[in-house]
Write a structure and sequence with these properties.
Elements (H helix, E strand, L loop, with lengths): L5 H4 L5 E4 L3 H7 L2 E4 L1 H19 L10 H16 L12 H5 L3 H23 L6 H15 L7 H15 L3 E3 L5 E3 L1 H21 L2 H11 L4 H12 L12 H4 L3
Antiparallel strand pairs: 1-2, 3-4
Helix pairs in contact: 3-7, 4-6, 4-7, 6-7, 6-8, 6-9, 7-8, 8-10
The protein binds zinc ion.
Length: 250
Amino acid sequence: VYYAGDCNAGSKTIAVNLPNDEEIQQQKGTRRSQLKNAMKAKFDKILVPIAKELIDKDQQKYIKFDSFFANVMFHEVAHGLGIKNTITGKGTVRSALKEQYSWLEEGKADILGLYMVTGLLKKGELTGDIKEYYTTFMAGLLRSVRFGASSAHGKANMQCFNYFKEQGAFQRSTNGTYKVDFDKFATAMNGLGNLIITLQGNGDRVAVENAQKAKGIIAPELQADLDRLSKKGIPVDIVFEQGVDVLGVK
Ligand SMILES: [Zn+2]
């Protein structure tokens, strides 16, 4: 895999679900790829260091690569599912929401991916402890809000962070670490999933834009915590050393 142009300019993709076109999706379905080496690099060099700084000391044992991998995998699965056409006669969700589509769709994939993880774990199709999936997801929120408001992923994670905070899904201690409340985390997940699917189904672009302005933001307290990560030199993203000269086949 070689990353060039737009794909190499911003945040590095770690998994894909294609095609994006709804018509082909409904006729032929979708396929997913997971880029495990890129995921492992992000997990080791970014997610774990973030967790060490910002996740409650007693919950750090729940940060697991397998949970990260599953959360990302079901994020991609969720892209392939869900509402493709509005229920209000406004055509596809994508065409109705226009520039507001991408960030909301990323938020949908995050939250419904976690919903699937929760359901499959209950059915015994996945192994592990839900605490691992939820705590790793929490660290993932803190990782991905750093992509900023210019990124669809950044905005989606800000919405989720702020929604979860309001619902008490986690608590920030005075020493600046975040502790997951597992029961409330599940409740908030269901609530946000409901909210996002309803916004998509209604195809109300103004409502989505308002949600983005209200929730797709980083409050000063969170910003101060993120600044601690930058000061520690924890990167926002990885950089690929790639190309024919790196491979020695020039
Ligand atoms: Zn996505």
